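A brief tutorial aside. Many learners find it easier to grasp structure tokens once they have seen a single protein encoded end to end. The record that follows does exactly this for ABC transporter, permease protein. Read the sequence first, then the structure, and try to relate runs of similar tokens to stretches of the chain.
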Amino acid sequence: MKRLQLTYRLKKIVLTVIQYIGFAILLVLFIIPFVWMVSTSVKSIGETLTNPPIFIPSDFHFENYIKAWKSGPFLHFFLNSAIITFSSMILQLLFVVPAAYAFARCKFRGKTILFGITMMTLMIPGQLIFMPLFLIFSRMGLINSYASMILPFSTSAFGIFMLRQSFMQIPEELLEAARLDQASEWQIIRHIMVPMARPTIVTLMLLTFISRWNDYFWPLVMTTNDKVRTLSIGVSMLKNTEGGASWNVLMAGNVILVLPILIVFVCAQRQIIRAFTYTGEK
């Protein structure tokens, strides 16, 4: 009996060690590219071309960030990214929350079919529908406008699915009690559904923020000048040096692009953990 217990404990220890080794390998694989980007952003142009590569530069050249910022209208690009990203987030809240509530709690004819159609849109890649949308916006004179950058992302099928799953886990008794107190459907959404689904909503907003802030394809397609171009386009337009890419300046631009995402993630990480832990969403 003792031998079996010893074997079981040894097996458990070995599996735990293997698990932590796997986590460590994944952590290194995810962190090294980011650390290398930051390291390259403070190197001299010569150190970026050395072979073998230098991980820690001899001197830290923080002026690369100034060069990246001054290489174009970066402040203008930054403000465009902020306007487009936050406008998309606000519109998604206005449209996704009522739609998710309707699919989760309301009974109406064709509900299952409509939800199925909504889920089917997740299988359609954006690259497949960009041409019809481009033609529509072009005929409406909305190319190089905030409307063409925001309206296609004013709702989200994935967001509707996430919030629907969260709303379905809220006890029906709470809603019935609110209706007995003469609460309207909008009051139920505002005072019961949204507060109880806050972790899921924060997670959805973070995912929307990342996708819109990092988006390169859509701003490239819908713009022909710098009027509403975003920071991701600005980074790709960084000046070249002697016919080749200035990797230190380019990496500095990428750090500027990624930094807001890291700040938002750090601020929202508790809500994200709660969303995936307590609501059971995978």
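Self-check: The chain has 13 helices and two strands. If you spotted this yourself, you are ready for the next section.
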